[in-house]
Amino acid sequence: MTTNNKELVVEKIDNGTVIDHIPAERVFKIVSILGLDKYEDEILIGTNLCSKKYGKKGILKIKNKYFNQEEIDKIAIVAPTATIIIIKDYEVVEKKHVEVPERIHKIVKCINPNCITNVEEIDTNFDVVNKEPIRIQCHYCEKTMEEIQFQD
Ligand code: CTP
Ligand code: ZN
Question: Whose CA is nearest to atom 20 of ligand 1?
């Protein structure tokens, strides 16, 4: 990603993860659901950058951080177009598209206050009825939701 061959918009990293092709308006949501606001190593953030494919995109480069599957699922729920790029010694060693899971176990809250998952200590479970735009349905109370609220 260069501007007229003069400069790199967001500099390369030596080791860590690049989350690319994030819809611009979701960048800070990703930061918060991954708890990156408390991360102590370097993070490079770019947003509202021009992308041929997606119009405006965001990018996050997190030094010395590699995400587990649960974290990658969270990224997919918020930014289904995202690409995860693993960097080691400045080289791209892996590049993969995130995939919205068929089911979401824990991580998301049911918005129905009377749902058993909000009354008792029961893990939430949702079926993903539509991936983009996302629509999920609670396994217990059958409430469907398009706004995703993550558990703390
Ligand atoms: N990247 C990085 N640090 C590196 C290597 C790559 O931050 N040491 C970033 C690049 O800036 C880019 C992404 O990782 O955002 C993918 O790198 P690369 O495959 O080299 O770039 P492109 O070919 O431009 O990828 P794409 O067309 O998929 O955007
Ligand atoms: Zn419910």
Answer: 92
Probe target for ligand 1 pocket from 3, 5, 18, with the most ligand atoms within 8 Å of CB: 18
Nearest-CA neighbor of 84 among 100, 66, 101, 102?
Answer: 66
Q: CB–CB of 95/115 below 8 Å?
A: no
The mean pLDDT value for 4-20 works out to: 85
pLDDT score of 82 more than 80: yes
Cβ < 5 A residues, ion ligand 2: 110, 112, 115, 138, 140-141, 143
Q: How confident is the model at residue 9 (pLDDT cuts 50, 70, 90)?
A: confident
Q: What is the mean pLDDT of residues 95-108?
A: 94
Inter-CA distances, 64 with 44, 68, 115, Å:
12, 13, 39
9: Cβ below 6 Å to ligand 1? no
Q: In sequence order, which residues have a C-beta less than 8 Å from that of residue 77 and are 6 or more positions away?
A: 100, 101, 104, 107, 108, 134, 148
